[in-house]
Specification:
By secondary structure, the protein is mostly helical. It is 51% helix and 2% strand.
């Protein structure tokens, strides 16, 4: 007899990469600055594309962007930008690449001011995850007052590709918001 299939959020396709991301990362709190920066860059790169497209390129991004070492990315020059624009393993969009560099500089400024990016970014949810109780993924909001505030403050600090919708997706990805639907096995035990 076959084992019972786990019930997942409706947005999660049958792609093994998507399933692993859903089951092990999405909605789980992240407090590591490098991983927070990685998600910020990847969410910006995803704009206009599917998240699965980004997940499939994630390892290439890690290699191309020095494993998301913001100090190294902040020093990228025209030669490195040209190299990135020729790298078929990433999303080759000049504005998104320039944004990653600008965001690295803004990220470093935030770390200098707050001590860690984690301390800064989690203030938008008062330091603890918001848990929502949506019955279906189509009920999930695209943005919230918290993502609006985050977007506004990030932009003021010089970040790019950080509109409220991107910020909300980032909040979901790094577990600032738990939006696993009520029927999802990941929601069980988190209520």
């Amino acid at each position: 007899m076959a084992g019972k299939m786990k019930k997942r959020c409706g947005w999660c396709s049958s792609d093994p990469l998507y399933i692993e991301y859903h089951d092990k990362e999405w909605g789980r709190p992240v407090h590591d600055d490098r991983l927070l920066f990685e998600f910020l860059v990847l969410e910006g790169a995803q704009a206009g594309l599917s998240w699965l497209t980004v997940l499939k390129k994630r390892e290439n991004y890690r290699k191309a962007f020095h494993r998301f070492d913001a100090a190294k990315i902040a020093r990228y020059d025209d030669k490195k930008i040209k190299e990135l624009l020729n790298n078929a393993g990433i999303i080759r969009n000049r504005l998104k690449i320039a944004s990653a560099i600008a965001n690295a500089n803004a990220f470093l400024a935030v770390v200098r001011e707050f001590g860690t990016f984690d301390k800064y970014i989690w203030q938008f949810v008062d330091g603890k995850p918001l848990t929502n109780h949506f019955p279906h993924y189509k009920k999930l909001p695209a943005k919230t007052p918290q993502s609006d505030a985050m977007s506004k403050d990030l932009k003021k600090r010089g970040f790019n590709f950080v509109g409220s919708t991107i910020c909300y997706a980032f909040m979901q990805a790094v577990g600032m918001v738990n939006d696993h639907t009520m029927d999802c096995f990941c929601k069980k035990g988190t209520l």
